[in-house]
Design goal:
about 35% helix; alpha/beta; 9 helices; Rossmann fold
């Protein structure tokens, strides 16, 4: 479950455009002009707006009316005619036969930390249904073994609002295996803000201790054999 009470108009209107995050993700995902993309938990639609010129079409899903209103406003202002947004859950959207095996990419970008294990499994199952053969699910999420998240988990500092389920790599691998999905790659990423980014980038490759400096997990998942040469 999620704490839906916090996801009001103010939450989505206050979401910043995280240029560092967007730049990192667009560099790691080799979108093609023929790709059809679904973003689950699209929030205000900043990421789909960024990749719009590089894909055939995109669909953003969110259960929040405020999120969808914000995303549509951004899309309308930018005349991004290849994007559309629906106020619907991933499970409901995936249940429609017309959406089965429809997408080259399904994106879960900073979503799963807001959802408990049961809900996350349901979302993974929905994503599996939405993917074309050879399509990929991309997960980007905070990493519980990151030093800052460990302090939050122990109550030393306050956790971010809505982050009810920050997990480590092993936890995600277990959930994805239960959903019948195949993990192609897990990459640890540094924090997006300085000076933590510089420190993480320097220390994350150390043996043993390096795991403490992987701020985000970037997980590439497939239901079937993935296309060659996509993610790097």
């Amino acid at each position: 479950m999620t704490d839906d009470s916090i996801y009001d108009d103010n939450y989505y209107l206050g979401l910043p455009v995280d240029s560092g995050r967007i730049r990192t993700l667009t560099e790691r995902i080799a979108f093609r002009k023929s790709d059809v993309v679904c973003e689950i938990g699209c929030a205000a639609g900043h990421f789909l707006a960024e990749i719009s010129p590089h894909i055939a079409s995109g669909v953003g899903l969110d259960t929040s009316a405020a999120a969808i209103a914000a995303a549509r406003s951004i899309s309308d202002r930018g005349q991004l005619d290849n994007l559309r947004y629906e106020q619907i859950s991933a499970q409901e959207f995936a249940a429609a036969d017309a959406n089965r095996a429809r997408f080259d990419y399904v994106l879960l970008l900073d979503v799963t930390e807001h959802v408990d294990d049961d809900g996350t499994l349901e979302i993974f199952t929905a994503a599996k249904r939405l993917l074309k053969p050879g399509g990929q699910l991309i997960i980007h999420t905070p990493n519980l073994t990151y030093w800052l998240e460990m302090l939050k988990d122990r109550g030393v500092i306050k956790q971010l609002r809505g982050h009810i389920a920050v997990r480590d790599e092993a936890h995600y691998l277990g959930l994805l295996d239960t959903a019948g999905l195949h993990v192609l790659k897990v990459v640890g990423l540094p924090h997006y803000r300085q000076p933590m980014r510089a420190v993480d980038s320097l220390l994350m490759h150390l043996p043993i201790l390096g795991r403490l400096f992987r701020s985000r997990l970037f997980i590439v998942v497939a239901d079937t054999i993935a296309r060659q040469g996509n993610e790097s």
